[in-house]
Design a protein that fits this description.
Layout lengths: L4 E6 L3 H11 L5 E7 L2 H11 L3 E4 L8 H11 L4 E6 L4 H9 L4 E4 L4 H12 L7 H10 L13 H11 L4 H8 L3 H15 L4 H10 L5
Parallel strand pairs: 1-2, 1-3, 3-4, 4-5
Helix pairs in contact: 2-3, 4-6, 7-9, 7-10, 8-9
Length: about 210
């Protein structure tokens, strides 16, 4: 049996953390390894516990979720961050995604949908609602503009699958490659296009017609 997905809860409301923990603890493949009440504590706990997925609120006293995301990126922490927010405004969600979040869900999300979202980001997927993807496309600076010609044909194939939300494992299966080779292609794509992460790569592919 595969190891459970290690999850850290970061939210300043104890009631929210308790509710999330109560539900997630009945999932056979998910293990809540810790909690934090603000972004600074969340970063410290993430470094200590090394969770696979972090459920992070955006607006918290002190260090908020966006600053915490930036700090985790600076530290090279590999955890996938899923924003759990009660705010639907683009001005709240978009900066979080630009800071490195793998996606977001709302606090009133159906419990089964939340578990599915955790599994999805853990598998390497990016969770973007269409309206937020549109906002990112219009608000992002245009990194990688004009550099698509430097990609090899294989890198273009990988980029198209990233835009489809495929994980490295799924890309490897689709292209009959090893996951290590796919990771190398992804790194090369990010370097050539001067992009920070897979989210930016997916958006670049949509903007420049590299996705289906």
């Amino acid at each position: 049996m595969a190891e459970p997905i290690r999850v850290l809860l970061v939210d300043d409301h104890q009631v929210v953390r308790r509710g999330l923990r109560t539900f997630l603890e009945v999932q056979d493949d998910i293990e809540v390894v810790g909690e934090a009440a603000d972004g600074a504590e969340g970063v410290a706990r993430a470094e200590e516990l090394r969770p696979a997925v972090i459920l992070m609120d955006v607006l918290m006293p002190g260090t908020d979720g966006i600053d915490a995301l930036r700090r985790l990126r600076e530290l090279g922490n590999p955890a996938r961050v899923l924003i759990v927010t009660s705010f639907t405004e683009r001005r709240t969600v978009v900066p979080a995604l630009r800071a490195g979040a793998a996606g977001y869900v709302y606090k009133d999300v159906d419990p089964d949908a939340l578990a599915a979202a955790i599994r999805s980001v853990h598998a390497g997927h990016i969770l973007l609602q269409p309206e937020v993807a549109d906002a990112l496309l219009t608000q992002e600076a245009n990194p990688g503009q004009g550099r698509g010609g430097s990609l090899t044909e294989r890198e273009r194939e990988v980029l198209g699958l990233i835009a489809d939300g495929r994980s490295n494992r799924e890309i490897a299966r689709a292209l009959v490659l090893s996951e290590k080779t796919v990771k190398t292609h992804v790194s090369n794509i990010l370097m050539k296009l001067d992009l920070a992460d897979r989210t930016q790569a997916a958006l670049w592919a949509v903007r420049h017609g590299e996705s289906d």
